[in-house]
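Box 3.1 A note on notation
Throughout this textbook, protein chains are presented in two layers. The first layer is the amino acid sequence; the second is a token string describing backbone geometry. Keep the layers aligned when reading.
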Amino acid sequence: MILLDPDLDQSPGPSAKKGGSSPESRKAEKEARLPAARTLARFLHEAQAAVRLKGMVSVLLTTDKKIKTLNRDFRRKNKATDVLSFPAAEISRGEVAGDLAISVDTALRQGREHGHALRVELKVLMLHGLLHLAGFDHETDGGEMARKERTLRARLKLPLGLIERMDRGSSPPTLPPEKRRPAPLGRTKAKGSPSKAANERRTA
């Protein structure tokens, strides 16, 4: 399920003027365009099957401001990040896998840094988040998640994953090590699912 934050600008790219835009600006505008929720929902289904993760997943597409609040409230880190994973509590496993929150603002910047469109970066972040929901943790697993992400992003025809970027030093770590706080990329669901914050605009 794809949820859109009501505060999210769905056209974050530069606006081209009729008759006066260059091919480069039109390309930039197209690459910055937020893909349809239906398109992202299809990828979510495909990626979830590849990860072999059962249960419903909600993906909140939000702003830097909102994800900074979530990062502060659940991880005690007062800064924006790209993706946060909230695994469901054990009692919900099978029916609900958990929630993801993705900053479209950060995804757009990272996509530009790595030379691909917003829609591609959103898929990279979704895959990374799904792996966390499935129980992988690249901070502690000795490379298991990195290998899995590399295999799946190749199968799903995606560019470098987040862990590979960190290993190559091509982008700052977006999910810094936890001090084993209870919620962030952890094994239990944080109180107050981020998906509820955007329930007023739900798109499947």
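Helices lie at 23-31, 37-51, 64-75, 104-113, 118-133, 144-155, 162-168. Confidence is low (pLDDT under 50) at residues 15-19, 170-192, 195-204.
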